[in-house]
Specification:
By secondary structure, the protein is of the alpha+beta class. The chain starts with 5 loop residues before the first helix and ends with a strand. It contains four helices and four strands; from the N terminus they run ααβαββαβ. Helix content is about 45%, strand content about 10%. Helix 2 crosses helix 4. The radius of gyration is 15 Å and the shape is globular.
Length: about 110
């Protein structure tokens, strides 16, 4: 997540590891793409996740809202957390994972 607190972390990792690290700015459009990709993976039964109670709770309680301009927003307002959802969505977006059945183990 190359947004807010993630900016210096991405910068440091890119300095240490070079082009192997790609920062992804969390814009409204980026979040929509990440969530739709995750939704499609689950719909097509192309993903298997660990038996992680917190991850499952965050997935089912992720809330979709709309900005005043009509753009979609996502948050874990009811749980106060959504970090595991975004970590999973980012991992599933990695180019090496495209087109394959995914197994996310914790």
């Amino acid at each position: 997540d190359q947004t807010g607190l993630g900016i210096p972390l991405v910068d440091d990792l890119q300095m240490a590891l070079g082009s192997r690290v790609v920062g992804i700015p969390f814009t409204l459009n980026t979040k929509e793409r990440l969530i739709m990709n995750l939704f499609n993976l689950f719909s097509q039964e192309r993903i298997e996740i660990p038996n992680d109670k917190e991850l499952k709770l965050q997935l089912v309680r992720l809330e979709r809202g709309l900005t005043t301009a009509g753009n979609p927003t996502y948050s874990g307002k009811s749980t106060g957390k959504d970090d595991r959802v975004w970590a999973l969505a980012l991992a599933c977006q990695h180019p090496l994972n495209m087109g394959e059945r995914l197994f996310a183990y914790g």
